[in-house]
Amino acid sequence: MKSIASAPAKIILFGEHFVVHGTKAILAAIDKRVTVTSTITPGKGNVLTKPDATLKINSQLGIFEIPMYEWERTDYSLEEMCSLHGTGPRVYFRDGEEVPNEFRPFVYLVAKLSDLTRSRHNRKELALYPKGLEITIDSDVPVGVGLGSSSACCVAAAASLYALFRGNLYGEIIYDKSGDSSFDREWFGENEMEEILLLAKKAEKTIFPDTSGADCTVCTYGGMIEYTRKSKYDEPSIEKIDNTFDLNLVIANSMIPHNTKNSVEKVNKFKENDEERFSELCDLENGLIDEVIVAMKNNDAAAFGLKMSENQKYLEEIQVSNDTLRDMMSSLKEISLGTKITGAGDGGCIIALVKDDNMDKVPALLGKDKECFSAKIDTKGVVWKIEE
Q1: All domains of the chain, ordered by start, with CATH?
Q2: pLDDT tens, 61-120?
Q3: CA 369 from centroid of its chain's CA atoms
Q4: Of 117, 194, 309, 386, most Cβ neighbours within 10 A?
């Protein structure tokens, strides 16, 4: 049995950095995707012997393989091993070694779903059923440039594994809504998209403990969303934006790796040094986003582009830009309606709103040392299917 799922990458159109401090943000899914394929693999043995089965993960970052049930032969339950250590869930094994960062979300998802499945059936031997898993990640999303590759990966993996575990991984139909288990209600209830999103957000926290969940949200549902979270302790407010026009976006990669943690620290330092001005910028950002929503309803691309450039001025003030990014935006000024950083800044990507008849001029203006591509808004969100 094979389960295939894909999820879109994302951009932040408005509100990066400020959203962490309670302002609104607008995020959009784009038509670059991560595909995760989960396949059941054979294993030897039975419930009375040690199963010879492995969990194998293949990605562009490398290959990781471990015994499928290594974590079952400890004195701890999976739930305890996947519990919160510090500020994010982590997975440990018998020797105390932590799973490598780049593979942690996938192992966490397998462990979590395996534990929930076992609890659902109240049969521990199900976890020793001699079958393994192979997970393969294929991506056309650049890594580490602020386009949400990790979020798209977590969403696609959550959907792929959710569908597989919900199906017939251990030789029984798992998805049975007739039971009264709390795991049925929380993880195998009516709204699959919400369940996948919850899994994805927890998986992403294994590598980014402070993630807001906004990226995973737009990668799950697609389209454009207005996202607000007053504090990290509050549930976010998420509103889908339906009245959007056809945006012709160019995404250009500065080829400078960005460091989200460093950028966040710079913004926090700016806030500490001038809380009054930072508060003013947050208010300006909220007002700007309200005007963006009106511009979209009026199909006013010119106003939308102007707001992009205005948002960039705020990002410049909080010092998350640099000369390379500024030069890139300046080179596209004559053919674009608006340009700005997307994501953490200090590297990564810029986005530009460009008319159709100017799209072919972009590569020459940016120069050969920069990568760029056109992007459309993805409206499908995460999709998945099972193949026998």
Answers
A1: 2-237 (3.30.230.10), 249-375 (3.30.70.890)
A2: 889 888 775 544 333 344 444 443 434 455 555 445 667 888 889 988 888 887 666 655
A3: 27
A4: 117
